Records
---
Amino acid sequence: MSDTGIDAPLMHPILRNDYAAKWLGIEVLKVADGHATISMELRQEMLNGFGIAHGGMIFALADTAFAMSCNPHTGSTDTITVAAGVDINFLKPGIPGRTLTAVANRRQQSGRSGIYDIQILQSVPGAEDEVLAEFRGRSRTIPKRP
């Protein structure tokens, strides 16, 4: 573990105490201003009664990428950026054992409000990744609570 308390080679400060992201097994692939790419393997305990990805698991992955893309990867001492609202569209079923990747990008920022698009991809053996879902987040920057 580094002296910052972050125990992964590539991490984001908001994940330091994010136990849900740890349980999901999220791996940070890339972080930059207004961008985050993360992934996780779709495990059996993440499936619904139909044997496909529970929508909440896909949403949680997208929401984590959203949070990482709208908060500075260098950290902030005075503000946090949170979700003001989101929409998600599920396009295909998530298949157990596949890797899901969320790619988040800021589309627009105006004052304390922002719009972010997150595409959730699913690995396909022997083929290109396919789009599993599309997520749009609306953010709001607020003062950090003491």
---
Amino acid sequence: MLAIVSAILFFIAFLINAADISTNDTFTSTNVMLIGLTVLALHLAGVGSGWNVRGRRR
């Protein structure tokens, strides 16, 4: 799920950069790309993958 969110953020950053859309200082293509990289790093770290049950009964 987080990988899909990061892909969407990368696409938004690409559109902002390719269309040369003027945005405010907070919502630049670089900032959106960095948020996407953060979400991708969280995905690779295993955050958001669901609950892991360690104590299974046999």
---
Amino acid sequence: MPSIAPLHTAAPHEHDGRKGTPTTGRPHPHCLADIADQIGPRRPGAIYQNVDGRFEVLALVTDPADAAQLLRRDSARWAVIVRDTLRPDGQPFAVGSVWTTSDYLIRPARTAYAPAA
């Protein structure tokens, strides 16, 4: 009688097609460009505006565990900490919305820190 063993068995290092690596949960290298597109030009020091307000980027969090905790979403891969500059009492908060055509850059991010005086 022939064996009923499966004809194809996935190797332990193969993944299930999701955009992450199976052992680390970090984005696959091919996805890094997607993440950069999602973040857009939002780097520390940048100011951008959309229908929700005008925001100064205070920090960019690219560690998935930290981003997931900040946004309270297990699927988060990054987060941007911003402050609404149109509100005098604007407090920093985290956002995970992707950069879209309704967002526009007012001031680009700092490229380097100025030396201390």
